[in-house]
Input
Amino acid sequence: MYMLLLLLLRLYGSSNALDINEEKEDVFAKTPCPAFLVFDSAAYIVGMTIELPCKCKPEDALSVVWYYQKNLGQRNIKVLTDLNGTKIVDSAAVTFDSDLQNRFLIRLFSLLLFRTLESDAGHYICGTSKGDFFYGYDVDIQEAKGLVLTEKDFDQPANTKQLQKTSKYSIFTSFWSWSVCDRCDISGEQTRVGICYIESEFLYSRYRRSTPNVASCGSASVPNRFKRKLKKQMAVVSVRSCLTACPPEPKKSFAVKMFYEFVGLFSKNKEKTPSVPIQYHLHHVGYPLILACPGSRPQLAVAWDKDKERLYRSKYMIGRNKSMRIFIDQGNNLNIRFVQLDDKGIYYCWLQGKMIAGFKLSVSIRTRIQRKLSDSESIYAMRILLMSYIFLTIVFLGCQIITCCCEVFSCRMRN
Output
């Protein structure tokens, strides 16, 4: 009797497990794929990490392939996949000058693009290696060249700013909500992004938009006759100061407090330094350097300090001044165009209002390196010298031949 009950319970549990698995496998079946391929419009700024989910696919498709095409109808199509339909990319090793093939990742049928560039704008299509297409996106990547400093609009919500309006279209900037304060207990900053949009009744209907008759300025749904007016329009970044309190630290036990007080007796006269992990880095003078905050994303609030100096975006944000040697790019990374001796120190980074890491930078003068003829640099230099010598020899011989021909021709004319 007991064995029969156990057998019935096991069969009942296995049937429930099968039902649960079937429910998980039918997630994509709830969203039918459109009969005619349309594109969802999305707009971002340069330097962001974006995710494009494949919202529908057949049940028998176990992997997907993503296709990229700049303009519909062209033959140059990039296939964003490997043999298994996935690709593993270390986002920390991705640089801004990396090719699109080295800045993507397919995870759970979704496409992730790291550190987007303005050239990444275009059409992204989810499909299979056989050429079946399921879902598509029209991605617009705008470069935020403008920097707006605000001071007295702390209570101002995310809004829109009218730029240009005619009888056929209306151009405006739509702002996102303000980010959190990037520092706590000291004066910090908040940022928000403004994307350029156009409202018109003449937009192409193949592109699906969240708001009717409204698309981003760089979207493919905008007719070509309007794009001439939109060339000068761009995204903007607003920055304002803020001050917020740090969250309370967890309470320590009485024994821990007594230990800290005992240790503090020997460090009363010493300056307090932030208790964050410190990374040591040695760099040579004259070479560029990029520091990235661990775990940061372009959408998060990141701040940088050098020792006790606050590197505020209102002064060090890229686009503020073209001749800046030290600046913070749109990906929240600290850039030094060429390192100098006075750049040494400890650079602290804040993430979402909390200091999380420090970089102790040591600067040295690079000594001369003795090259060998077998080095790749030596071979390249000799090849350039040889090609230059051959080119100059050909030019010299050509000049001599032309001179001789002119002399011969002038002698015949005299005779």
